[in-house]
Amino acid sequence: MDDLFSDDNRFPEIKEEFRKLNHYMVEVGVLKPVGNKSLAFMQMIATVNEFGAEIYPKNGPYLIVPMRDGTFYKLKHVKIPERSFLRDGVDLGMHKIVSCVEDGLAGIMSGDMTARELYEAVGLLIEQRIKDEIVLKTSPHNAALTIENKGKDDPLVDTGALHKSIGVKVIEI
Fold it and tell me: Which helix or strand (DSSP H or E) is residue 127 part of?
């Protein structure tokens, strides 16, 4: 018990670092524009895939879908099924996230980690989980027209832009 109050006691520093946990937050998701695609465009693509969507023509009776070979298809509407890569990336990796937090809290206790570093570690883990989920998500399959156009049945991967758009930010609040 005397060690708790000795001159080499680290309790005040540890206590302060734990207080700092309340002064950060981490954002993980579609945070980066990619190539000539704006952040807003990448977020729209993510939202449509995350929750699914039905798209109907606004300026005529058909949607015009351009194909790689220069031809076009006319469609009355397009249904994009839900392919939850953001939520599943977190939910299916929760045991790893919890373990990372536990290790980080132990690191703060031992003086090997700061509050900010804990948030960075958790953010990087979630970022990787989401990126992994983009690659692993193979169901529901692409529509036949999409497979014909892309040349493959890889629902969330075409150019790699969605994968590249995933990022992490630790924010001081």
Answer: helix 115-136
- Residue 115 in tokens: 């509050």
Question: What 3-state class would DSSP assign to 172?
Answer: strand
d(CA 146, CA 79): 12
Find out whether 20 and 116 touch, Cβ atoms under 8 Å.
Answer: yes
Question: CA nearest 170: which of 103, 102, 116?
Answer: 116
The DSSP string of 49-106 is: HHH-EEE--SSSS-EEEE-TTS-EEEES-EEEPP--SHHHHHHTTHHHHHHHHHHHHH
Along the 173 residues of the chain, how does pLDDT read in single tens digits?
A: 555 555 567 898 999 999 999 999 999 999 999 999 999 999 999 999 999 999 999 999 999 999 988 999 999 999 999 999 999 999 999 999 999 999 999 999 999 999 999 999 999 999 999 999 999 999 999 999 999 988 899 999 989 999 999 999 999 99
How far apart, in whole angstroms, are the C-alpha atoms of residue 166 and residue 160? Answer: 11
Contact 22, 117 (CB under 8 A): no
Long-range contacts of 10-16 (CB under 8 A, 24+ apart): 10/111, 13/111, 14/108, 14/109, 14/111
Cα angle 157, 46, 170 (rounded to 5 degrees) comes to 110
